[in-house]
């Protein structure tokens, strides 16, 4: 059976942080994005409202800032190794995130077969936001369905990895899921639960990885 592994980014592949936080750190608006993150976590603002406000904060953003944010982010260990193993098994791996696509798509460099995020204007910004391109938790499932069609698999062949409420809809749509450093709400809904900083350990919970890394 060919599997499609669907990875969230913020708080999942990235330990204790999120792409908007790392981007904002580069241009000195950490406090402002922190307020937006808190409001979003409390469900006081929607993904669309968050993205429009973040876009307004990032008026000085350049591609160099984005690259520095990506390179300096607190990634889990073993991401590229896990994705290489997935390739070698003949399976597929993709990232689906509410974060900006201009950041998420950099993970294609590490071996993801696909990477989908909320669509922002090109950096540096010269145009307004189109909220139609902003992903939602429900939108993650729509992207997953498109990826299933692209790779010739079904939802039954998918494994989802996530950490927060925004991943719950996708967890409910697929048969297997791995909560990675997750909030209790999501951990209670997951097939497997992992706490730590090495994606190889989380992946091994599925019983697919070769021996050599012990899951905690």
Write down the CATH class of the domain at 4-15 and 75-204.
Alpha Beta
Structural class: alpha/beta
The H-level CATH homologous superfamily of the domain at 4-15 and 75-204, spelled out, is HAD superfamily/HAD-like
Mean pLDDT: 95
As for the CATH topology of the domain at 4-15 and 75-204, it is: Rossmann fold
Give an account of the 3D structure.
This protein is an alpha/beta fold and 216 residues long. The chain has a domain at 4-15 and 75-204: Rossmann fold. The chain is built from 11 helices and 6 strands. A 6-stranded parallel sheet has the order 3-2-1-4-5-6, with helices on both faces. Strand 4, helix 9 and strand 5 (176-180) form a beta-alpha-beta unit. Helix 2 (19-26) packs antiparallel against helix 3 (30-41) and helix 2 (19-26) crosses helix 5. The longest helix has 15 residues, at 137-151.
Q: What would you say about this model in short?
A:
This protein is of the alpha/beta class and 216 residues long. 42% of the residues lie in helices and 14% in strands.
Could you give the topology of this structure?
Blueprint: E1 4-7, H1 9-13, H2 19-26, H3 30-41, H4 47-57, H5 63-71, H6 79-89, E2 92-100, H7 101-104, E3 114-118, H8 137-151, E4 158-162, H9 168-173, E5 176-180, H10 184-187, E6 192-194, H11 199-204
Parallel strand pairs: 1-2, 1-4, 2-3, 4-5, 5-6
